[in-house]
Amino acid sequence: MPDDMGPDERPPHGLSRRRALQVLAAGAAALPAAACAPNRTAESAADSTPPTSSGGNPLATGSATDPDLVSPVVPWDLVLTDDELETLASLCDVIIPYDERSPSAASLGAHEFIDEWVSAPYEGNRRDLVLVRGGLAWLDVESVERFELEFTGLTSDQKHEICDDICYEPDVGPDYRAAARFFDRVRDLTSTAFWTTEEGMVDLGFVGNHAMASFEGPPREVLERLGLA
After folding, report:
1. How many Cα atoms within 13 Å fall on the side-chain side of residue 32?
2. pLDDT band, residue 202 (cuts 50/70/90)
3. For a Cys staple, 110 with which of 54, 84, 105, 175, CB 3.0–4.6 Å?
């Protein structure tokens, strides 16, 4: 940010530093409240959950409490903008970059998983949406202030310089505490997305979900019950 620009003036990408901090702080402040919220019953959760459609499994009801995991659908609109997704993808690749073992997180769709997560119409996911959106705005503001470029335009070293300042909340100063909570949440969601893909499981060394020569297959009565015999 140029030296003569005040804290309330808008940098080139259109959001003031103070406003970005306000949005980010609002999302970060909402996180502790989640732990204090009353538990919802299974009945109330089911009532507010959008229905899913039945897919490839003829025995799956495709309901909120019994989704069809063979042919999953997303029953809500995705809310992150293209610019937000681009910044988020860049951050995901800082968190889990490409190496000789596996592809990068964004190349496996981690940012798209996070978009689906924060778009969900549930209380906790809505809090994450505020936190993630505010954090992405803060990331661009901080990038412009330090390097006069938005986050996606930075070099790898410049991206790491910013992320190193917010990657561990106990060590950050008061000015970066909300940003650290944002980074921690995105890191958790990126890890979840990455290590539940086939490539991520290979990277992790997970040996499940593979047929073994000693397994003769499910009993015929099970196949008949599932309509697969």
Report:
1. 5
2. confident
3. 105
